[in-house]
Amino acid sequence: MKTTHIFMLAMMVVLSACGGRVAHPIAETGVLDAQLSCTHLRGEYDNNVYRIAELAGERQASMVNNAGWMIASPLLLDLSDTVRTETEALIARNEHIKSLIEDRGCE
């Protein structure tokens, strides 16, 4: 009986890390920012906007998945702030890119 409890506790600890993914936020400034052309800046800005929309969809899917996992196995819930962290980093990067675009007089 004691072995079963230890095994179950170990499985709960192992499975509790399965719910989410690790955040990979981008830096607000880049080493090569001074060398980027207006076209590159606009391209990166547009790519970041697209990624923000993807993250919004991922957040919606995560909420739906969490509702299902709450019933099946609460250990698999994604309770991380990964999407929020990455979205905030992308927004900060886009603000920096906007200031670079304005400073260079890009259209």
Characterization of the model:
The structure is a single chain. With 107 residues, the protein is mainly alpha-helical. It is built from 3 helices and no strands. Helix 2 runs antiparallel to helix 3. The mean pLDDT is 78.
Biggest sheet character: none
In N-to-C order, the SSE pattern is HHH
- End-to-end Cα distance, whole Å, is 72 Å
Helix coverage percent of residues? 55-70%
The radius of gyration computed from the alpha-carbon positions, rounded to a whole number of angstroms, is 20 Å
Shape: elongated
Identify low-pLDDT runs.
none
Q: Oligomeric status of the shown chains?
A: single chain
Structural class: mainly alpha
Strand percentage, roughly? Answer: under 5%
Instruction: State mean pLDDT (0 to 100 scale).
Output: 78
Query: How many beta strands in the DSSP annotation?
Result: 0
- Count of alpha and pi helical runs: 3
Describe the structure in brief.
This protein is an all-alpha fold and 107 residues long. It has three helices and no strands.
